[in-house]
Inverse folding.
């Protein structure tokens, strides 16, 4: 009986030791589990923050794309407006040139009209001198052919200019000029000269009327502003 008690006591002792060891081991591992849980919570929170940040970035990218589209529309509109303003400036400069407010220069031609040097006996002198109609034919042909500016004896013609012959002189906008009459024009010589010299055209008509016509190409023709001349004369 004493041996049985001794065995039981030993068994209980071992069992108590195992229980104590197991409890102690469980106690020691519990903080590790706590740390692992806290770390998992942090990772979860970090993951949620990352998801929210990605959603915010996607939203910002969408807004950026919309802003860029608006900027492109504004740039396109400004480009169109710039082209419109550029065209308006070109038109203004062109109109200023036509009304004589600005000086102009460029290649062109020079036409000289002279009275005939030979008048047969008994013929009417008026049939051998330059008349207003002759000058009008030349001027009209020049403008029709695309001349940008025209002057007679240095007097620049405007849209409201007038001229008429009075004997051996021509009056242009109130100023008188004697023969020969030199008509200068700014424009493409390769267009203006053929337009005058076309068969049956202005040059042939003037020659038929006994007017001496000379046509020359000029690399540069200059015409001063008319308003500046008027101010200078006043």
């Amino acid at each position: 009986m004493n041996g049985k008690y001794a065995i039981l006591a030993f068994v209980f002792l071992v069992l108590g030791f195992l229980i104590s060891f197991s409890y102690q081991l469980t106690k020691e591992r519990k903080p590790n589990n706590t740390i692992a849980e806290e770390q998992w919570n942090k990772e979860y929170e970090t993951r949620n923050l990352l998801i929210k940040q990605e959603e915010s970035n996607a939203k910002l990218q969408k807004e950026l794309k919309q802003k860029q589209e608006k900027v492109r529309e504004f740039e396109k509109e400004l480009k169109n407006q710039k082209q419109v303003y550029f065209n308006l400036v070109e038109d203004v400069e062109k109109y200023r040139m036509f009304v004589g407010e600005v000086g102009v220069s460029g290649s062109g031609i020079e036409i000289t009209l002279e009275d005939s040097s030979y008048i047969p006996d008994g013929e009417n002198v008026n049939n051998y001198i330059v008349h207003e109609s002759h000058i009008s034919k030349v001027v009209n042909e020049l403008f029709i052919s695309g001349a940008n500016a025209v002057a007679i004896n240095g007097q620049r013609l405007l849209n409201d200019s007038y001229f008429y012959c009075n004997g051996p002189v021509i009056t242009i906008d109130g100023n008188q000029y004697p023969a020969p009459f030199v008509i200068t024009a700014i424009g493409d010589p390769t267009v203006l000269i053929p337009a005058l010299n076309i068969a049956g055209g202005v040059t042939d008509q003037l020659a038929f009327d006994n007017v001496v016509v000379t046509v020359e190409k000029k690399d540069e023709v200059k015409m001063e502003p008319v308003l500046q001349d008027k101010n200078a004369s006043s």
Remarks:
- Residues 228-234 have pLDDT under 50 and may be disordered.
- DSSP finds five helices and eight strands in the chain.
- The radius of gyration is 52 Å.
